[in-house]
Amino acid sequence: MFGLFDKKYNNPELLETISQTQEKWFAFLDKLEQRMDELCSSALPEIREVFNQDKDPYKRAHGHMLLGIRGQISQMRNKANAVREEKITHFIDVVKAGLPDFISFSGREYHDKLMVFRINCINRHQIFEDKIARYNTLLEQATGGQDLETAYQQELEAFENIRNKFSCKQCGGQLTISKIFFIAAYITCPYCQTQNTFTPSTGAQMVLHRARSLAEQRTAHLLKFYEESKPENKSLYRQYLRAMFNEWNKIVPDMTEENEKFYQRMLQDHLNSIHHY
């Protein structure tokens, strides 16, 4: 009876298919990385030039260019994820379903080979993801690294100096601006109830535009911990993500509700990437 577990299972065609599938996966990622290298190598100096020449205080030309490049990188990532799901994850599920029981000698042998294949494919994909992270960092730093913290603190100081220097356009009563605004807001006069429009300075409006970048600068050390963790510790990324959004909310508290919706989407995308395997 126990001899049934030792029944010989021999499937050289399957081993060849596993080998070929791994080779194709590696070659596919090699091609994507080559495209990414070419894209970013040519884009990085151009991004610096556009940033330096862009007279718009919001640097919209630079922002649009950066968004376009990141969009192309994101498309490469999505394509890799789709191929991984179809050609690797699904392939593993199908093969595993047709193998002998794991407790048999021959079954265990093939299950082990499939496990090695899975690990090799995961590790190769992680190299691809690491390259994406590196290029995203280089793209972010292509402007030479703005001191966003100093600019933010200067705007807070400037606001403190002017918050009590406004008067109602209707009755002339003194208006006190209770908090810093980054977009135009209505301030109600406590004397005549007239609504006065408060328009923040260009510098204050830029705080809203740069808030996420500043939050990322403040929490860059946490992202570095995650990127340097070997093996990759996904919980460190979640810690970074939560901390980054906390800082973002501190900088522009009026955007907390919208930011939290964005956080939930990013967190779900991260969890989905983990559960892909």
Task: Enumerate the spans where pLDDT stays under 50 for 5 or more consecutive residues.
Answer: 1-6
SSE topology string? HHHHEEEEHHHH
> Taking all residues together, what is the mean pLDDT?
84
Helix content: over 70%
Largest β sheet strand count, sense and barrel closure: 2 strands, antiparallel
Query: Strand pairing plus helix content: what structural class?
Result: mainly alpha
Radius of gyration: 27 Å
Report, as a whole number of angstroms, the end-to-end distance: 36 Å
Shape, please? Answer: elongated
Q: How much of the residues is beta strand, in percent? A: under 5%
Number of strands: 4
- Please count the helical segments: 8
Report on this model:
- With 277 residues, this protein is mainly alpha-helical.
- Among the domains are: 137 residues, no CATH class; 39 residues, no CATH class.
- It is 70% helix and 4% strand.
- The strands form two sheets. It has a two-stranded antiparallel ribbon. It has a two-stranded antiparallel ribbon with strand order 3-4.
- A hairpin with a 6-residue loop joins strand 3 and strand 4.
- Helix 1 packs antiparallel against helix 2 and helix 1 packs parallel to helix 3.
- The longest helix is centred in the first third of the chain and has 42 residues.
